[in-house]
Amino acid sequence: TLMSFVGTTITGQGILNAILYFVGIFVGSLFIGVFAALASALLFKYGSLHQEEELTTLEVCLVVLFPYASYMLADGLNLSGIVAILFAGIGMRYYTAPNLSLAATQLTTSFFQMLAKLSETFVIANIYPCSWLINLRRPISKKIPTRFQHALWFSGLRGAMAFALASQSVVDLPKDYGRIYLTSTLFTIFFTVLFIGGSTAQVLKYLEIEFHVSKDDVANQVSNKNEVCELKTIIH
Fold it and tell me: Is the pTM of this model over 0.70?
């Protein structure tokens, strides 16, 4: 929302437009997610898919495709795919899941647990491999420096979704196991957001990465570097 109003004069009407723009995107994305969830619930309830064992694989495929379809539809309409798939998942958890067969429920649960574990690992480990692959096809002047990779890894940790899942575990898990999960998750979130987030500026300084630099300054730096390179070439 903020990026859509870059370069415009800040006025009361402009702030109102920004709020309406944000609400419009949120409501539109929410509607797409809820629609996908209700459509899947109706399909599984009246489609009799759970009555045929050979249709278990089809059930699992549809459970995966409906939220993904909501994401792609919202993204294609310039809305928020993340909000759409979030509400699609919430709706399908309450209205679609009870209409699945036992085999499909077990297979779907195992499948999403596997994806969750792979996603958690990928979020932590993707910076360096992806940077290496990108640098293979870039000229030396456009390669991602190692210190930039360190900064990306350090500042890329998040905690919002972890908090949502941990809050649900308080209800789902017996005894006080859910509270243990929630307390541990909150500690991790506070550490990553407050400590890591708060110290990111110092880390950038330590890694000698410039920030709050204007485009003109960058252009001047590039021009100066080019002049120095030309001078070295002439001297050589």
Answer: no
